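Quality-control log, excerpt.
Job 1 of 2 completed; input and output follow.
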Amino acid sequence: MQIVKVVLENIKSYRRAVIHLSQGTTAIRGHNGAGKSTLVEAIGFALFDFLPYTPAARFVREGEKLGKVVVTFVSAMDERVYDVERRCATSGSGAWFVIDPDLHSRVAEGKDDTLDFLRVHLDMHTSLP
């Protein structure tokens, strides 16, 4: 599995950011408050249902109602590219799903289906939450 791109929209200090990741090891650097931890938190939120704090609404940029993280990865199972999209809102719940860009359709939707899909495609031998 390889993460190739992360898109953040209205997530903490990011209004909109697109981060492309190359194959191999990636170093993330920057000044304090630049958003390094936010990038790592966004990946954890989208792929593993993990944020180091609750509620997820705290992840949304101040003054906005909806935040979105999209993580594009190459599957360890079939070597195809998929987009995992995770939305969070300041009120109510968000959405979580996987898109197959080649088919232009959702291949998993909701927490259980998305986690099941990710377990297989990320080649996870342990349980996700």
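Job 2 of 2 completed; input and output follow.
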Amino acid sequence: FDLDAYGRIPIVHFFQWAMRKNELMRTRAELELYDSGGDGWLTENDLQQYVEDLLPRLPALTGLLEAFVHFYKVTAVRKFFFFLDARRRGRIAIKEVLCSPILQELLDLRRPDLSADDLRSNWFSQESAAQVYDDYLTLDADQNGMLSASELARWRDGGLTSHFVARLFQEVNTYPNREDGMQNEMDYKLYLDFVLANMYKSTHEALAYPLTPNPNPNPNPNPNPNPN
């Protein structure tokens, strides 16, 4: 706080600080309710449940179709784990979630007065999540729920070189094709990591991409035709 000549602070500044402190404590208490391990950490499932329960309190997400809720949760939670789970342990400390601007970006959707530009630039908005999901479905030419190297190469009208895509598929933990088990493919979560790395190119996490995630024998389920 800035002190005046008598060592005092404006009441309005103290009030704003108290309000922010109260909001932080309330949010921490809410997040702790989803700590399934009781150890101060949240898994993907924990955070997805938090996001699902938060939806009715976010005016910006009014009208979100039930069929899209699952993929919205996956999309939303992936940003937390891309930036806050650098070691790919599959969990995030609650204190890190609270200190991250990512949580505030999500909670901004509580405001009913967000402009169209605000919504377009917010990863958690319905418009943004639907666009990412639509792009994935468009790339998935054979509609098997995952992306092959040739399908990903079509991203942004074919802006990726074959050498880049081949190298990317060598580095990330892809999954065997369900049809022949030969061709490795990328599921929706890995695609979200790829999108986030491209959106935030100057961040430490993007510069360290691709980060190999924990082995997962059950890739993200086959996306249904776009419910939006």
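Post-run check on job 2. Confidence is low (pLDDT under 50) at residues 214-218.
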